[in-house]
Amino acid sequence: MLAERVYRGSSWIPAPGASAALERLTDRGLRAAVVSNTAHGALAELLSRTGMCEVGGALVPVAAIIDSQVIGIEKPDPRPFQLALGALGEPAANVVHVGDSLHSDVVGALGVGMSVAHIDPLDLCDDHRHDHSHSFEDFVSTHIE
Questions:
Q1: How far is it, in rounded angstroms, from Cα 120 to Cα 123?
Q2: Tens digits of per-residue pLDDT, 71-85?
Q3: Residue 131 is part of a domain; what is its CATH number?
Q4: Which of 7, 13, 63, 93 has its CA 20 to 30 A from that of 43?
């Protein structure tokens, strides 16, 4: 129930430092897309309302916002990742997916050939076949800057 309210609910807020980290990433000429499982279908509105990012607006630009509820397909199915790759215009080998779910994000992204940075703030994941970071901000600071 907590996961449903926090991760899939419409009261979502960005993780501390995530917005600034995304802006630093895109300021360096790297492109981003958002791929998320939601229960509400309002991810694009939430990202815009919280000042995180948007497609074709004044906020930090992203190539696409792929919302599972809107497209009717949830990660780890490969199709949401493939939609993001198409929007980015990049092959999977050139893309790193950053996500916090071992099942939805890591399994899904590896399944289409992307590299993965697993956001694991408590160091609970002992799978060393993919990278780990404590936060999106930590990922950008250590891998991009």
A1: 5
A2: 999 999 999 999 999
A3: 3.40.50.1000
A4: 93
